[in-house]
Structures are given as structure tokens and as C-alpha cells.
């Protein structure tokens, strides 16, 4: 079984047009394996068909495919788990995805659409795993706490005993090895953990009462060392969530920028790592950093553990700045 999974990984991630099509390659490969594999957009239709077949669902896959095309969600379906989420949500209530996307403009950046799918799926799972909708928010908060705990430890799975007793009360999105306290538990897919962390980071920024205070709203970024390097997808999703709210975006990014600018030589290691997370989040918005950072300057800043691939630092004063243990490939410092 393990050999089969490894073989499937190699074939599916390196195949060419000369290889068998996706239907043949997926035959006999476990869904848990497929959820971890890289796919092309062209394979999304096959993933939808398989997800529907596994659930023995009486669902019109072609109609859903047409709807996903209309919403311009096909780029998002490169993640097979997102395809599975779409099917599972559609089976439960066809109105969920429709309602979630009615508020989005057609030209909306596809990572924003991806976060909308995650949000709709999580709310559906939280409601369906309990006896009434009133308990869905506490369960969602429990799931968020577990995601943050795992992420703070830099891992994607741990024992129930290590995570805490409340772990066993969150159903639907967690996978349990068994119900023993020493059994391993993880999210159904790592992207769920990353989305919950991204959601929590943004919620903290939104709820901060004093954006003018440096460090306000970034305590979670401080408690998740090297988040940007260990879970870069969480930073990407957080950037998409921030960009989706044009009203709060300026204040949230200003809080991040003030915190980054305040990190100086002599700052604690945890402060430098938090600044690295904050700067990574600003960079992942895709906007030139000179538009987000006051003055703009980072002179003397002390930053550590940042993911700054292709970041635009042009026209930013970086004199005496220290950026340590960070990804800086393709960044522009002109």
C-alpha cells in the first residue's frame, strides 16, 4: 500500500502527455494519497467525479463543473482536497457554495475564492457535526485552538493527550487514529489547519482595539515562530483574507507594518520572528511594500524567519537592516 502511494506520487507529479490519463492513474490509489498529490487543472473534473462516486452521491457533476467554471474556481481545484470539499458541501446543500460566491466579483483573485470555499465548508462541517447550529461557533473555536496549537509546535499531527481533552469533541474535520489518548490526531488535510490559523491571525488583527500601538494585534504571529517558513500556505491564505476586506485592509496592514518597523537590533528572538511573520504577510499581498510600510523604511529593522520570495522592496530604506534565516529569492531591493 505504501509503495503504491509512493509510486502514485511520482507518476502523478512528473507525468507528461504521453502517460496514461488521470482516470487510469488514479485507479486503485487511496483518496488519502490523492489529497496529497499535485494536480493540473485538467484533472479537476476527474477528481470531482471520483469524490462523488466515493460518496455514492446522486449529484450532477457536470452541473457543478459548469458552476465552478462560472465562478472561475478551476485554478483553485489544483488542490484535490478543495475539489473534495466542493463535492461534500454540494451534497449537503447546493445553496451553500452559491451563497458563498454571490458576493464575489467575477474578476476576484482566485486565492480569495479559495478562502471562501474553506469558510463555507468549515461552517457546514461545524453545523453538521453537532445537534444544533448554536454550538457551531464554539466547535469552530475549538478547531481553531487545535490548529494553532499544532502550528505553534511546527507539526501537523499529535496525540489527543498532547493536544488536550477538547480535541475529541471536534468532529468532521479531524482524523483520529483511534479514540485512545495516545492515538494520533490531525486535520483531514493540512490546508484546513493552515486556513484556520490564517483565519485566526486575521481575526486578531481585526479585533485589535489600538492599531496605532506597535505590536497591537500580532500576539498570535508572535506565538507561532517561523510560521512563514513552516506553513507558508497559512500566510498566503491570510493575505487573501485580508485583501478580501477592502475596508479593514489598510488598518490591518498598518498594524503589521508598525510592528515590523519597530523590531530593532537588540530585540528578542521571538520579536524578530514575529516581525518576520508580519513582513511575510505584507509581502504575500503582492503589493509593493513601499505602499504598506510607513515613510517607507525598514532601516535598522531586525527580522528573522520570513518568507519573502519575489517580495518588492524597491525604494525602501534598508540601511543596517538584518534579515536572518529567511527566503529572499527573486526579491527586488533596487
Describe the protein's architecture and organization.
The strands form two sheets. This protein has a three-stranded antiparallel β-sheet. The chain has a two-stranded parallel ribbon with strand order 4-5. Helix 8 crosses helix 14 (232-244) and helix 9 crosses helix 11. 40% of the residues are buried. It has 16 helices and five strands. Mean pLDDT is 75; it is low at 1-6, 8-23, 29-36 and 210-216. 52% of the residues lie in helices and 5% in strands. The longest helix has 19 residues, at 110-128. With 334 residues, it is mainly alpha-helical. It has helices at residues 2-14, 22-26, 31-34, 44-54, 61-70, 80-92, 95-102, 110-128, 136-152, 160-163, 190-207, 219-223, 227-230, 232-244, 249-262, 269-283; strands spanning 157-159, 174-176, 184-187, 302-304, 322-324.
Question: What is the gist of this entry?
Answer:
By secondary structure, this protein is mainly alpha-helical. It contains 16 helices and five strands.
Amino acid at each position: 500500500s505504501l509503495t503504491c502511494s509512493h509510486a502514485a506520487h511520482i507518476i502523478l507529479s512528473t507525468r507528461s502527455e504521453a502517460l496514461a490519463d488521470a482516470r487510469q492513474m488514479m485507479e486503485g490509489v487511496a483518496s488519502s494519497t490523492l489529497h496529497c498529490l499535485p494536480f493540473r487543472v485538467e484533472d479537476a473534473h476527474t477528481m470531482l467525479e471520483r469524490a462523488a462516486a466515493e460518496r455514492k452521491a446522486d449529484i450532477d457533476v457536470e452541473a457543478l463543473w459548469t458552476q465552478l467554471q462560472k465562478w472561475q474556481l478551476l485554478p483553485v481545484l489544483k488542490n484535490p482536497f478543495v475539489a473534495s470539499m466542493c463535492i461534500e458541501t454540494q451534497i449537503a446543500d447546493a445553496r451553500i457554495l452559491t451563497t458563498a460566491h454571490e458576493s464575489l466579483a467575477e474578476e476576484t483573485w482566485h486565492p480569495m475564492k479559495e478562502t471562501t470555499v474553506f469558510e463555507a465548508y468549515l461552517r457546514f462541517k461545524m453545523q453538521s457535526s453537532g445537534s444544533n447550529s448554536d454550538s457551531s461557533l464554539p466547535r469552530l473555536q475549538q478547531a481553531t485552538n487545535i490548529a494553532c496549537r499544532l502550528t505553534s509546535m511546527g507539526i501537523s499531527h499529535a496525540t489527543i493527550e498532547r493536544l488536550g481533552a477538547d480535541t475529541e469533541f471536534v468532529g468532521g474535520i479531524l482524523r483520529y487514529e483511534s479514540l485512545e489518548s495516545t492515538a494520533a490526531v490531525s486535520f483531514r488535510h493540512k490546508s484546513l489547519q493552515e486556513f484556520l490559523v490564517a483565519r485566526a491571525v486575521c481575526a486578531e488583527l481585526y479585533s485589535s482595539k489600538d492599531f496605532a500601538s506597535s505590536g497591537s494585534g500580532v500576539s498570535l504571529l508572535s506565538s507561532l515562530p517561523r510560521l512563514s517558513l513552516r506553513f507558508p500556505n497559512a500566510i498566503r491564505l491570510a493575505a487573501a483574507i485580508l485583501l478580501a476586506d477592502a475596508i479593514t485592509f489598510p488598518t490591518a496592514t498598518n498594524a503589521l507594518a508598525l510592528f515590523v518597523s519597530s523590531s530593532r537590533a537588540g530585540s528578542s528572538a521571538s520579536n524578530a520572528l514575529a516581525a518576520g511573520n508580519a513582513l511575510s504577510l505584507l509581502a504575500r499581498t503582492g503589493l509593493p511594500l513601499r505602499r504598506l510600510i510607513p515613510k517607507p523604511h525598514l532601516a535598522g529593522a531586525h527580522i528573522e524567519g520570513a518568507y519573502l520570495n519575489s517580495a518588492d522592496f524597491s525604494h525602501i530604506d534598508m540601511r543596517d537592516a538584518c534579515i536572518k534565516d529567511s527566503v529572499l529569492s527573486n526579491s527586488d531591493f533596487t
